[in-house]
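Shipment paperwork, digital attachment
Item: protein structure file
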Amino acid sequence: MKLRTPLTSFIGQKLGRLTIIDIYRDAKSNILAKAICECGNDWTGYFVRVQSGNTYSCGCYAKELKQKSFKLQAMKRRKTPRKKLTGKEGFYWR
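Attachment content:
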């Protein structure tokens, strides 16, 4: 027989960027977790997703990745100097 870890033992634990505050059941018997993210936002969702690692943060991590990606794309599109055959500097689009 496999022993299960009591859900109350997860309270106070940090899973990803989320710190679990409370674990409870809703009207449909789903196990929900209430947590605080590193960024300060409150998060409520399915506990199984946090426990399995599918949910890492409140959504702030995805926003950060999107901003980094956008900055990299903008840097690639930026004009870069290039010397022309005449010896004068000019600009071109990559």
